[in-house]
Specification:
single chain, about 80 residues, mainly alpha, about 60% helix, about 0% strand, elongated
């Protein structure tokens, strides 16, 4: 059994953190989309794969995100990512 160097341990931990962030991002997105589906079952969620509509530029998209931060915190607040 070989011992890992400090650098190797740090690289391994960095990989674990990256995977955790990816998993958390996907889970939070799925959580929000499942809530949308539950409230609006007829909405075609596949349209979201194309991103924002062409009428919504980067500035408008940023404004939408900023304006929805409080709601976002509420909606994803019940997700327990740390197992505590």
């Amino acid at each position: 059994m070989s011992k890992l160097t400090l650098v190797e341990k740090a690289q391994q931990a960095w990989g674990w953190l990256q995977q955790f962030v990816k998993d958390a991002r996907e889970f939070a997105g799925a959580h929000v989309l499942s809530m949308v589906r539950a409230h609006y079952p007829l909405v075609d969620l596949s349209r979201l794969e194309r991103g924002y509509p062409k009428e919504v530029g980067p500035r408008e998209a940023d404004e939408l995100r900023v304006n929805l931060l409080d709601l976002s915190s509420t909606v994803i607040g019940d997700i327990n990512l740390c197992g505590t």
